[in-house]
Every structure is written in structure tokens, then in C-alpha cells.
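Hi Y.,

Following your request, here is the sequence exactly as I used it, all 159 residues.
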Amino acid sequence: MKRISIKFLQSVIVLIGIIAIFIMIRVPMTEGRAENLDLFSIYADPLILYGYASSIAFFVALYKAFRLLGYIGQNKLFTPNAIGNLRSIKYCAILLGALIVAAAVYIRIFHDKDDDPAGFIAMCIITTFIAIVVATAMAVLEKILQNAVDMKSENDLTI
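Below is the corresponding structure, written out as C-alpha cells. Let me know if you'd prefer a different format.
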């Protein structure tokens, strides 16, 4: 049962990554101002390129979560490698939140006066909040797991 649930969660992570890549490829072509542009002009937009560069942190976090589930499946959760994966996910969430805030500030300052950036900024606020929640959860789990690893190493030394 445990093996099946780990494989299911890993497949969910892979599915999230595939859906994210699909959205990153497809959505810029359907955007309102991209109707009359060629493919190069659509994907050469600075904000689109910034989004692609920022997504690296998201995909690194997905990969680290996939590896963490692998450690759980191998009963190697209480190892320094698992703690390192949690720490990496935490840093990726912090970086992603900071990059989203930077994008919101950029849009707020340099937006066209005819455009209303409220929807974009609201989405930035929501995703930044999600990134902060993920980073906080990973920090708590990292601390708990670090204490458990320390206690396990102490018990291994006393026996």
C-alpha cells in the first residue's frame, strides 16, 4: 500500500510538471495582445522570458519533491539527503516568491497607462502567499526532520 501511494504521489508531481510546461507553451499564444504576432515575437517578450527563467525554481522544487518521495519509498527519510531536499524546496519557494514580487513591482511601475494591472498583481499576491506558506512548511519540516536525525544518530551511538 505504501509503495503504491508513493508512486501515485510521484506521478502527480510529474503530471504537475507536464501541465506547467503545457501552460507555459500554450498560454502566451492565446494572450490578447499576441493575436497578430508571429511565434518569435510572442516568445521574445521580456515578461514571458522572465516567467520562463523564474520557472526554473519551480521545476527544481518539483524535482526535489520527487526525490524526497523516493527517499520516503526507500525508508530513507531520516537521512541528511532528505533534509537537503527539504532545504532546497524551501529555498526554491523563497526564490520563487521573491521573483513573483519583482514581476509585480515591475508591472506596477512600468505598465501601460491604458492597462489595469490589478488582476496580475492580485495573482502575484496570491502566488507569493502560497510560496511563503510552502517555504514556512518546509522550514518546519526541515527542523523536525533535523531533530529526528540528530536523535537517531545519538541512539545509534549509545547502542
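The longest helix spans residues 118-158.

Thanks again,
Q.
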